[in-house]
Amino acid sequence: DVILLPPASNLMAETPSPPAELSPTEDPKVEWRPKNANFFDDGGISFIWKRHTLLVLALVMSYLVYVAILQENSGDYVQNTKAGLAVASCMFLLTGVTQFNDGPFSRPHPAVWRLVLATSVLYWLYLVFILFQTPEHARSLMSYLDPTLGVPLQQHTYATNCDIYDPAHPSGNPYENFMEKLDIFVIGHALGWFVKALIIRNAIICHALSITFELLEYTLEPQMPNFGECWWDHWVLDVLVCNAIGIHLGMWACQYLAVKEYRWKGFWNITSYAGRAKRLLQQFTPYYWTSFEWRSLQDLRTWLVTMMVFCLVMAIDLSAFYLKDVLWVPANHRFNIYRLLVITPASAVATRELFQYARDPKCVRFGQQAWVLIFVIATEFLVSYKFGAHISQRGRTDPFWLYFWAGAGILLVLWTLVYFVVIPIVTKRPRTDSTTEDSHQLFAKKTH
After folding, report:
1. Which pLDDT tens digit goes with each residue over 65-95?
2. From CA 357, how far away is CA 373, in angstroms rounded?
3. Alpha carbons 58 and 444: distance in angstroms, whole number
4. How far apart are CA 375 and CA 447, in angstroms?
5. What would the pLDDT profile of 284-294 be if each residue is shown by its tens digit?
6. CA-to-CA distance for 177 and 230, rounded, in angstroms?
7. What does each C-alpha distance from 221 to 156, 226, 230, 239, 308 come to in angstroms?
């Protein structure tokens, strides 16, 4: 893979870029070290940083031998099936942790991010398996995993009464219409956009995503009643309050991490117990921080990758609603949390890899996590489409929105062609691309 990056950081951190004269595609063993004055690492390597493939092999084989020789299987077919699937999944995850390539992040440990990649691959395989089932069989499978599932969902809309002040409200509180919108999902909105800002690291893109999703809710409201919200819920409570607070807090965190000093010392090179305790806690902080200078209009490649990131984020958000609808998973069910725990860290790595692909002239292929995540999102949409016949029967989208999105798409394509193809030809200006000197310097300069 092109993004054979060395140990890097956690959800919000990663390793620096390579020297300009050396590409990760040319030498995957290169150890990337930043040249920034605010970074130092003494290079101390301890036992825990090694993969220990032989140790893992011995432990796994010992367990399998125990199962084959000493363990007595239950006569319960259901229990044995669940145990076999669970252990087989764990074996795959162990294979990924020990054998997959390192990605751009390494905190708190590179194995964590290899586990993220392995988990996303396993999730994709589960989605492919579900895709080959009928809707009834797929929902039965979900109830097999959790007996409380398999029940049709009750559709709920948030646009029944949009009066902010209603003195005749049955509850006696004239502001009840507004207060009942302030549920746990308000905190979820702000927290979600805080994480998105840490991942994308660009306020303009985040605000554009926030507005676009509200427009998509208007468009898809006939199919998904829970997209129905009052105008002030869409544009005030969501866009201007919750989303904006999350985005700006996230960007503030990005700015802080960009100027923070990173001085790393090997754990065993620290003599005091207090210093070692502090260093242990710092293991869960960024190893290094790279600001994303997307410069989307610099060249066609960067523009297209930016649009890809934009579409992927929208697809991830929409899939969360459609999947739980077609598989009959309630909004407060733990399976939705599990999906977030898989998708969120995978999205962080994939965005970093896509940024590398867009801005590094020597990067010629997507990274492994970006490749897998694209398959995951596409398969989620295919499952939703295959099992979602009942969704399209709820109502038709307003023709206005069909014309709106068609017109927006046509204008976007025409503008792209004019700006990146026609204007350079007419003005005889060479079209900029990712091989320019500016792009070369992006991954070698001292300030990221």
Report:
1. 999 998 887 778 888 888 899 999 999 999 9
2. 15
3. 42
4. 34
5. 888 888 889 99
6. 10
7. 11, 7, 12, 17, 24
